[in-house]
Design brief:
By secondary structure, the protein is α+β, with helices and mostly antiparallel strands. It is elongated and about 115 Å long. The protein starts with a strand and ends with a strand.
Length: 1365
Amino acid sequence: CFDAIVITAPNQRAAEAAVGELRVAWQRACAPGSSPLLLANHDPLGARIGSGGGTLNALDAAGRALAAGASKAQGNADADPDSMPLDAVIAASRTARILVVHSGGDSQRSPLQSVCGKAWCSLSSARVQSGYELEHPANLLSPPRTPMELLLGTLCALAADGSLPLGSSVVACSDVLLLVSSELRLGFLTEPGAGRHSGSVTGLAIAADKQYGPHHGVYTTATAVAPSSSSSSSSSPAPVVPVHRFLQKASIAELQAAGAITASAAADDNDDAKEGGGTVLVDTGVVCFNAACTGALLALAASKPLRGVTLSAYSRHHHSRLLSGASDLTEAAALTPPPTPVRIELYSDILLAVANVGGFEEGEEEGLSSETAKARYLTSMSSGDKTAPGDGEAALLLQAARGMLWDSLHQMSFGACCPPSPSSSGGEKGFAAQPAGAQGQAGAAHSVVARFAHLGTTAEQMAMLKGGSGGKHEGASAFAAPFGLKPRVLTSITGSAVTGSAQGEGHVQEVAHPTSVVVNSRLHLDVDESKESSGNSVFGVASGAVVEHCDLSGVGWCVGHGAMVSGVRHTGRGWATPRPTKSASSPPREREAARSAPQGGAEFKNGVARYEFSVPPGMCVQENAISLQHGKDGGGGGGEQVSSSSSSEFFAVTLLGVNDGVKDEYDVDEEKTKKVPTVCGVSWSDFFAKSGLVPSDVWPPSPTQPAAPIRRDLWNANLIPVCRVVAHPDDSSSFTPTTTTATTTTTATTATGAVATAAGLVVLENWRLDPSVLFWPLRLSSGANPLASTVSEWKGLTRLSLKALLGCASASAQFEWRRSLEVSVGRSIVAKAQAHTIAPAVASAAQFVRRYQSKPPTKQATTDSSAELTTATATFTPPPSQPHGRTPSRAKVLREVKVQAPARVDLAGGWSDTPPISYEHGGAVVNLGVLVDGKYPIVATVTVFELPPPSPPPSSSPSAAAAAAAAAPRQNVCCPLYLSTGGDGDGASMLCVNDLNDLRDYNEPSAPAALLKAALLCAGVVTLPLLAPSTPDTTGGVPSLQEGCNAAAAGGSGGGSEKVAAAMSLAEQLKLKCGGGLKIATRSFLPQGSGLGTSSILAGALLCALGHAVGSPFGCSGAVKRKPTKEGGEQKGEEEEEEEDTSLIHAVLMLEQMLTTGGGWQDQVGGCSQSAATLATSNPCLPLRVRCKPLNLPSGFAALLERHLCLVFTGAPRLAKHLLVEVLRRWWSCEPNVRSCAALLVSSAHDCAVSLERGDLKRVGEALGSYHGMKRVMAGGEGYDGAVGPSLEAALSPLAHGLSYCGAGGGGFIAIVTKAPLDDGAGVSGLRSGGGCFEAVQEVALAHGGTAHRVSLAHGGLVVSTKYY
């Protein structure tokens, strides 16, 4: 709907950061596939040009960029936007639609948003993904939305369906929230009126409580627009009516006199109802200009009085100085002086000139000459100009600019689009529960009312975050349902901690109060086990508090009621630091130090102070990364210059009160203004009285301009200390900042403990061990007086004002921090929720496991590749180390099962097999089973040996021996279970297991033989007894997994068989299931992290061996089985149903979830199927069922493929578990590229299968190369390529039709389909004489620290051999 979108910014660094955020907001808010021109523009030379100058600057930039693009499309590759002629700029604008959004300027009234802009403040609003429950990770992972994102969605809907003609431009403010009907469209007056030309302007007006009037623009129209009733219909188009007056921030009396207040249908539910109530048509900040008006504004931007507001004019001026041939800049500036900027406002200058709505009463203009009317207009504008610069050149320039605005705009028409507004009788029936449509428009098709909310101040923003009341403004609760406002958005909260506190002994400190708001933060508390709960609770984040973009840590922090903490990430190093408790007998100075300790729950216990980071109620704390080059102004703030580097080792800590008036001056008459200027919640008078400071300490004169007047308000007060990032060795934070040495190389500790840098800055390292130097201003509101030494140390620190902070803070660093925290919090959510969300797939797998276990056991497996009966006697000698001091005895071997398995090479479709992607979207993968260097690389062996009978302990008498034998636990002479993870060689690691409890760590992948333990449970060979209710389950297992395991072990619904098995000892269970003890040995010749599916295939081989050992083998042959009828016979005729025996594939899936490593099913399909090439699929449904299709390769193609397929080991193995978490995070976050890539993975797998069955080697290689790119998309680019990946890939690419990392990527093996046969060197350049293509691959691999390996297809899948003795 828009061809160009421009957002304004206060300075160049903010603009550079904003363009990236604009791209993200557009992708999240609007329909995918559209790609408008996205620009970020800033005021030239740091001048303040106002919203009107910013609008002209933005329109000029957009028009020039569009014109340059059109010129380049015509073949002019060197087209420069700044050099485009005006007629080309206007012509380009007439073929496009332009959107300009003001980000909020310096945001003085909302200082916490100054650095990033109010457009990018985070709301407690997240998109609800359809098809998922509210507590599903897909919704928990939705990032917080910004006003910019919501506004883009709304404006795109308003301009949809071609309602705005080409050439139109829309200007909006980002600090507003709009609720409008999805059927509302913007337009212009159809009848401009007598004396008006084709230019037209439309403002979006929404009826709101009259208390909005004194703070906003208000329209008066010829036709009164009444509030809607409950019977209003959304199908009625919103009227566009002529505007007669446009009042700017008029008082209630002035609004009443102008007839701008419309009586409400009923009294509103607020304090103003006593005064009669009423509504006004509020200017929402959304203004539309048609093509003629947009062209006029572009022409104005190029005119002499106004060209100083555009960046293009400064660029042309700089270019002309270079062409002038001046010897220096001073001479050049004298030859061509730069254009002078002028400050004009959009709403009080430009719009008041349109149709004379700001200078005349209705009908007053009639009969006046043009010059007289213009003079009257300029006089009225000057009289109401509160920021007029006075006499002189600047005043004359402003007067000339206003005159040109009047000349160009006064004959244009001005209309107001007035959608139906809410009335007290109509209620809120018309609001939608969620933004409708793919564009996320605020409102649904059945919405019949419109609402407006302003986020201009910190208090207003917090009210919206909490969905509460915004003072005398309309309640923010009306926006809660439509925008999905909720108290927790993308938040990871670990739990509660029991602690003693100053408020009483034995309180339970919980992380966050239910009424607090936590956005994009990760909170957790340590546990103090020395206290027990008394049933009362205190909270780290108190009621009504807001925490955003913070990574808080263990016990040692609290955020008071109604406080706000933003961007804090360098705390934690001073928490719970040693500090002695002060008694009444302590010296007065020490007692005072104890009293000045952090308030709000400080605890002293065993010399340890709790709640070191404490924010009192109603206070704000924000951390901002800054870049400083210390200038001539010293440490007083305001003189620091912006560094060229965006990274910084410094950060600033802003301390404010929520209701502090940033613009309120200290030395004004409070009785006249009826305002008491405050700082951190106390008056300036109290601040100076309690601290002992004087105004010059806070507002020091500038060293360069000591006589220059300084506005003494909070905006210019040097109250923000500068800290330095220092990485501590014991820092356990997951977000360790990068320490740079861009500005300091040496430091010295001062007498007060601060750090003096080589550049002259006096700063604190991090938050210091004692934060009182930072936080003493916050505690003034609670009556605490700071120590003189504390104030003295604070006074010597380098401090900034809010104004100076805006110039040196790094918006890019803030956005980067938010994004990194979003990813980290998302990974935490995925890690916590993964097992629970995978449970449906595990339950599906359990169905196949139970089906396998329902088969009657057989003495000899019929699917063995070889079965041998020998009369020789074999014995098993256990290792010498035995529990209980028993001496091992030689045990007779009953049978031995050995399973050899190939490795897996994935050609297409990987990641689509991973739950929940496989059952939410559907999966399809193509795999090859291969031998590496002619060997089966994976082996599992299960040996069943005879257990000797239990022997009673020795006793002095037969009767005593019998009693002891009956009462004592039964023990075997040798252990019933031996687990070896290194094979049968001398280097094998043998684990002796004698008790069932030794198997409970099966779900800890790092535990010894964890895979083997999980396989025993999954196969139902062993059943763990359920723990008593009072016994803590230390396994960390998911109940559904353990229940599924027990159900599988019980053989289905089971009856009481699982109870019988669970009541037995380990030896008794093995004797029952296997006929003796077990020795399990596994071995892999592949390195860990190879990417060849080793762990899953090893699990499959192990389960296969266990199944054969107990006489009930799993199935993975692809054999077709008849579905039995109720009578037990085979089903006949048309109703015949066939199914594959894939119980082994599903059992491995279940085992991996029990092991908590996760993963999909492609590995076991590739390594365990009987076909060398397999296409496996699963439908997007539950229960999850994997179907395997053997691929019929043409005659001779298998041999051809072996001559062109090889592996290269990169030398950098990788583990996919963390990459899996990241892929699932991106999948559940519904990132469009990941969702579309999943569809491509499935379709490409089917295409690759077709290419294999056709014998098209080149297409198979190309499919492998495409698959390589898709896996990179799924992984997000980061973490996919290993350290040597890009260079090795580039070196191998000329030799290959296609290549890809095996498995998830990032290391391990690379699979290559070569162009030339591996044994043939024809056509391969750079080969030594007599070498083939494989030698070329080997040389490249060796040059990059890797090795090359030949592969051959494994026909027949698993090789099972059984020996009976």
